[in-house]
Amino acid sequence: MTFSIFMTFVFVTAGSVVGAQYRFKTDYYDVPLDHFSFTNCNKTFPMKYLYNDTYFDEEAGGPIFFYTGNEGNIEWFAQNTGFMWDIAAEFGALLLFAEHRYYGSSLPFGNDSFSSPDKSGYLTSEQALADFADFLQWFKRTKKGVQDSPVIAFGGSYGGMLTAWMRIKYPHIIQGGIAASAPVLQFQGITPCNVFNQIVTRDFDQASPNCSATVRKSWDALNKFGTSDAGREWLSNTWRLCEPLKSSDDIEALKNWLVEVYGI
C-alpha cells in the first residue's frame, strides 16, 4: 500500500546518507561536570571529539572549523556535515567536531546519566557551551601549529543555536560562525510551539493534496501494527530496520524518528 511504500523509501534514503565515509581521528578531553558552581568542582568526565588535519595549512595559519555538537552521536554529525569537508581544502582548515554532553559516549555518569535529576540536571546548553569553550582553549594550547588559528564554528538546528550562542558568549574564542537553520525565534512568548509543524504540514500539502492526510493515517497504522508481535515483526522486516521492533517503546522511538525525518 502507499503507506508502506512511502515509509520504505524514507528508511532507505535516510540510511544511504550515512554511507559517505569521512575519515577522522577520535580522542577525549576531560571537562568539568559543573562549570558554574563549587559543588562538584573536582568532578570531570571525558568528552569525545573528532579531528582531521589532512587539509590544515600550518604555514598559512589555516583556521579551525569547529562543529558545535548537538543532540546525537558526534560521528553522525561528522559524516553528515559535508559543507565543512567540502571547503576545508580551499581554506587550509583543520576540522574539529566536539560531542555534546549526555549524548553518544560523552556521558558524565555513564549508563546512570539519566537515572535521576541530580545526575541529568547538568544537561544544559550553558554547560555544553562551557565544555566547548574550555576544550577549544586547551586544544589551541596543546595542538601544534594552531595557537594563532581563528576558530569558525558550524552548526545546524539546535547546533546552529549553539554556534550563535558561542559567538555571542565567547567572542574571544570564536571568531565567526555559520548557524544553519538555527531557530533563533523559536522561543516561548515569541513563536507558538506548533508553528514549525504547521509549516511542515503545509509543505507536504503543496507537494500533494493527499500527502499530509496519508502521513496522518500512518500514525494510526503504526499504533495498530505496534500492538502485536506479528505487527512489529512485519514492520521490522518490511522496512528492513537495523534492529527489530520488540516493544511499544520501540514503536514510540520509531515515530519520534519519523517526526524528525519529516521535518528535515
Automatic annotation (TrEMBL):
InterPro entries: AB_hydrolase_fold, Peptidase_S28. Keywords: Carboxypeptidase, Glycoprotein, Hydrolase, Protease, Signal. GO terms for molecular function: carboxypeptidase activity; dipeptidyl-peptidase activity; serine-type exopeptidase activity. This is Lysosomal Pro-X carboxypeptidase. One of its GO terms (biological process) is proteolysis. Belongs to the peptidase S28 family. It comes from the Eukaryota. It comes from Orchesella cincta (Springtail). Residues 1-19 form the signal peptide.
